[in-house]
Structures are given as C-alpha cells and as structure tokens.
Amino acid sequence: MPSAAVPVPADIDIARCAQMRPVAEIAAGLGISDDDLELYGKYKAKISLDLFHRLDDAPTGKLILVTAITPTPAGEGKTTTSIGLADALRRIGKRAVVCLREPSMGPCFGMKGGAAGGGYSQVVPMEDINLHFTGDIHAIELAHNLLAAVLDNHIHHGNALGIDVRRIVWRRVVDMNDRAMRQVTVGLGGPNNGVPHESGFDITVASEVMAIFCLSESLSELKERLGRIVVAYTFDRRPITAADLKVHGAMAVLLKDAVKPNLVQTLENTPAFVHGGPFANIAHGCNSVIATKLGMRLADYTVTEAGFGADLGAEKFMNIKCRSAGIIPNAVVIVATVRALKHHGGVAVADLSKPNVEALDKGVENLKKHIENIHRFGLPVVVAINSFLADTDEEIQFIKDKCAYLSVQIIRAEHWAKGGSGAETLARAVVDVAENTKTDFSLLYPNTCTLWEKVGIICREIYGATEVLADKKLRDKFKRLQDEGYGELPVCMAKTQYSLSTDPGLKGRPKKFDVPLRDVRISAGAGFVVVLTGDIMTMPGLPKVPAAETIDINENEEIIGLF
User: Fold this and answer.
1) pLDDT for 17-62, tens place per residue?
2) How far is Cα of residue 267 from the mean position of the Cα atoms in its chain?
3) Whole-number Cα distances in Å, 218 to 33, 88, 95, 163, 262
4) How far apart are CA 465 and CA 456, in angstroms?
5) How far apart are CA 249 and CA 251, in angstroms?
6) What is the pLDDT of residues 218-233, one digit of tens each?
7) What CA–CA distance (Å, rounded) separates 40 from 133?
8) Which of 68, 400, 437, 520 fits a disulfide with 380 by CB distance 3.0 to 4.6 angstroms?
9) pLDDT of residue 4
10) Are 340 and 363 in contact (CB under 8 A)?
C-alpha cells in the first residue's frame, strides 16, 4: 500500500487492480458451504435464508455501528471507514465482516457518486455493486409498483372496497432522481385507461417496501408486513391495505430472491454483506436486519453503518432497527474529518486545506453534539478522524483537547490511503471499548409516548431544537393516527442531512431554531410513522450538471466516469 504522502490512484483504477478471490472461498472462510450459496457470477452470491434460520440460536459476536458528523461537501467517508475498520479488525486477528447498504442509482447518476467506499477501502466488484448488482432494488421497485397497479385496477373494475380516489396514499417509485415525476396525474385518456386521480413518484429507496424488506427476518414476516401496507382510505376513512387487495403474496413472490443477503468482499478479501438500501434522510437508513444478524452469527465482529449523521441514521438505527430486531451495538464509531469540521466552522470548500484553528473551534461543536447524542443512548463512542494529506498533528490534537471532557478516544485513521493497515490503531481502540466498556443502552423514548411526544423528543434532544411547529390540520392528522392505533409505533423523521436543523444552510451546532413539520404518513407494514420536515423531498432532483453527463463506456466495455 502507498504511504499517506503518495498520491492515491482513482477509486476505479484501484478496484480494477483488486486481487479478488472467488466468492465461494470468501463464504468458506465464514463456514458457509456451497449448498447455501447462489452464485451471481464468480464474485457475487446470495446466501440462503435456510442458513440464516439454522443459525438462529448461534452465539453472536460484537456489533459495531459506524456513523458520522453532519455531512458536508468536503466528505466524511463513513462507508470507507466501515470497510477499513473491518479490514483492520481482521489484520489484528479478529474474525470480522462488514454489512453495508446497496447503492441507489439515483445518487450514482446524480451528484453523490457510488457507495462502495473509496481509496484502498472498497468493496468489490465495485462497478457491479453500484450498477444493478443482484437486482434487489429493481425487485423492490416492481413489488411496489405492482401494488399501485392492482390498486388502480381495483378501482377501474368497480371499486368494490369503496376507495375514495382523493385519499389514495400509495404512490409509485423509480430508482432515479427525477423531479418532474414528483406530482403526476394518472388515469387520463378515457374510461379504458382507468379513473383519473393525482399521484406521484418517490425514489425506490424511500419506498415502504424497501423499509419492510430491511426489517423483515423471514419470508412469512415479509409477506405479513407487506399485507399491512395502507394504500388508500374509503369514503368513511377506513384504511385499505395490500391484504385487502389480495396482492401481498404476489409482492412477496417478486422479493423471494432479493430478500436473501448478498455476499461480496473488500479489497483485502474481508467478507461483506451488501443488502438493502434505504436513505437515512427520508427513510430509516440501515442495511437489512437479515444481513446484520447473519454477520453477527458468523463473525466475532460485525461492522455496519447508518446513513448520514448520527442525528439521522444512528438515531433511526437505535429507535427503529434496534427496537424491531432486538439488537444492541457494543460500540459506535463517529467519523469526522478535519476538513469537514472546518467547513462547519465557516470555511469555504476551496480553503479547507489551509490551517484554521478558529474555524475548527467552531466546527468541532458539531462533532461534540453527535458524541452527546450517542451517549444519550448509553453507548460508548470512538471517534475516527478520516485522515487527509493536509491534516496536521496540531489540528488533530486540538480536536482531542476540545472533546476531552466527553471521555472518548479520538483516533487518526489512514485507511483510505493505506487500507486496513491504516486503521489498525482504530481497530484496537474499538476492540478495547467493545470488550471492556459496559453499555447501558436505552431507547430515546418508550412506545407508550404519543406520536407527537416522540417527535418533540427527537427534535429537542437529538437536533437541539427549541420548538416543533405544525398547523392545526397536521396536528389533527397526528391525533387521527394516534386514535387509529398507531400511537405505539416509532417515528422516522425525514429531514435534511446537511444540518442538525431543517435548514441545510445552518452548519456547525445551530442553536435556538424550530423544526417545522410538513406532513405525517403511516408506514404500517414497516412499523413506523414517517414525519416530513422542512422542504425534504422523497424524490430527489438531479443537479445542474449530473454525474450522468460524465459516465460512458468504451469499446472494451470499461465504464468511464462513474467514480
């Protein structure tokens, strides 16, 4: 591996030079036999659900959650750190796996790029993982849209259930950023084409089917949860579900292969389960429970991530995934960079390589808030400073000094440039904390709080807000959901990832701000209530110059410009 002072090649060039081992060998290293593998070529495979259930009573290893500070254009490297940490754990003698989410093609062709790590901490085959992979997201899209089609077909053929077309809440999905599809009218063109009504598209990873997929632990649970999806209401406000339309079984059929976890590997041949892909700003932001639990049953250490900052993915990991799956992390790694902290302190992206202690002093407040948030759940924290070439020892020490009162280890890690060898110090710190620190895990709120109370607790305690704002119509909607029996469900907040507040322009640790709520939706199958804040969209748009403009393929079938 090159040293941190040597320029690192482009991600795609590193990935193409990877010495991959056949996925059957990777599986064998975990004790998985060929009988439990479904090969997708030489380097990708699905693992049978039968193995998952056979291991149900097996002892479980440690679970390490990787989260981050509030994202910035400077980058933080949460996925890269997850991969580098898993590689490093194996280097120091631990049996480790990494569990990640599947990339959505919306960001790949938009502005974020791929989601398979970077530098010398990547999962491979990277191009396959970022483009279609094993088809899971497409299967979720089809299952979701089958429900929409059956719903419209039921109305067209007499509407025996008495559905009020003005109260259809099930939209369609597509795995691409497309703002023009946010609001559409369907059923135009006369009686043969159905009943006209308003609808729209969300991005596939925001689908309730995706959330159900990631929280289910068996085909039977998957089908039961799909049946609970509320798609519309009758004229007398009675909810209509997928089970009422008798389509949840067919939806499960479309997902029967997708629900099996995918196995790939890192550049250093560490096993990687890449499965499920909900966004953390508009969904719960964690990979599948099946993949996470399978990793825990097969390895000493399972490293997994939750999307965006600790105010989004990590909060939902605890309050939704841990609550549903009955799992508890043994330690949490918060990823930060010196560059990102300076940006939170007011420095422009072009100037982030210049030393600026004053800006770092302001920006480190964001890191401190995220550490406090994780401590609020009773979990120990290790901070990973994802190292850049321009970082100085003085800046790293400054961060350590500012956070000293929080009693956390702050470790400089160089996994991007050096792979697992650059994260061995981080791995040892994580092992020390996970094996020697007693956790006192507690959820942020009990099930018995009202939905409105849960929103207030998240906004005040996690974001640091002063007030939660909602008009009477929206407050009445909260009360109606409460009265309909959904009050004990957890809350999934849909909020910008770029700030602790709902204003993406407020960096650092904003104070004295309110959280305006725009809508609340029931995801009965997923088992949570979605609350939309500010201007958050469930269908992103493309930037002025989308990444798609630079993506191409040459005569040798080599993809250009994806990374």
Assistant:
1) 889 999 999 999 999 999 999 999 999 999 999 999 999 999 999 9
2) 22
3) 21, 32, 26, 31, 15
4) 9
5) 5
6) 999 999 999 999 999 9
7) 9
8) 437
9) 45
10) yes
Which H or E element spans position 251?
A: helix 248-254
Q: Which residues are known catalytic residues?
A: 78, 80, 101, 112, 280, 308, 388, 416
Does this model's pTM top 0.90? My answer is: yes
Closest CA to 508 of 365, 409, 370, 387: 365
- pLDDT for 5 equals 53
Q: Between helices 208-215 and 136-156, what is the axis angle to 10°?
A: 130
Query: 202 near 171, Cβ under 8 Å?
Result: yes
Instruction: Determine the length of the chain.
Output: 563
Average pLDDT of span 344-354: 92
Could you tell me the CA-to-CA distances from 310 to 67, 483, 487, 513 in Å, in that order? 6, 31, 25, 19
Structure tokens at 41: 């070529």
Mean pLDDT of 160-174: 97
Identify the DSSP state of 20. Answer: P
Has residue 558 got a pLDDT over 90?
no
Q: Check residues 424 and 1 and name the one with the higher pLDDT.
A: 424
- Reading the block at residue 493, the tokens are 């907040």
Packing angle between helix 357-376 and helix 393-402, nearest 10 degrees? 40
Amino acid 12: pLDDT: 80
DSSP string, 485-522: IITTS-EEEE--SS-SSS-TT--SS--S-EEEEEEEEE
Q: Are strands 331-336 and 381-386 parallel, antiparallel or unpaired?
A: parallel
Calculate mean pLDDT across residues 448-476.
Answer: 97
**HEC readout, 325-343:** HCCCCCEEEEEECHHHHHH
The CA-based diameter of the chain, rounded to the nearest angstrom, is: 73
Cα 529 to chain centroid distance, Å, stands at 17
Q: According to the model, what pLDDT value does residue 547 have?
A: 85
What is the C-alpha separation between 101 and 369, in angstroms, rounded?
25
| CA pair distance 563, 560, nearest whole angstrom | 8
Q: Contact, 419 vs 267, CB < 8 A?
A: yes
294-320 mean pLDDT: 97
Provide the H-helix boundaries in 30-77: 49-54
Amino acid residing at 17? C
386 is written with which tokens? 């994802």
Q: Is the Cα dihedral 276, 282, 286, 289 positive or negative? A: negative
- The tokens of 358 are what? 């004053």
Residue 300 has pLDDT above 60, yes or no: yes
For 533, residues 6+ apart whose C-beta sits below 8 A from its C-beta are 493, 494, 495, 496, 502, 515, 516, 517, 518
Burial of 57: CB neighbours in 10 Å, binned 0-12, 13-18, 19+? exposed
Which of 9-13, 80-84, 540-544 has the least mean pLDDT?
Answer: 9-13
- Report cis status (omega within 30 of 0) of the bond before 125: yes
Angle among Cα 529, 532, 533 to the nearest 5 degrees reads 135
The predicted pLDDT at position 105 comes to 87
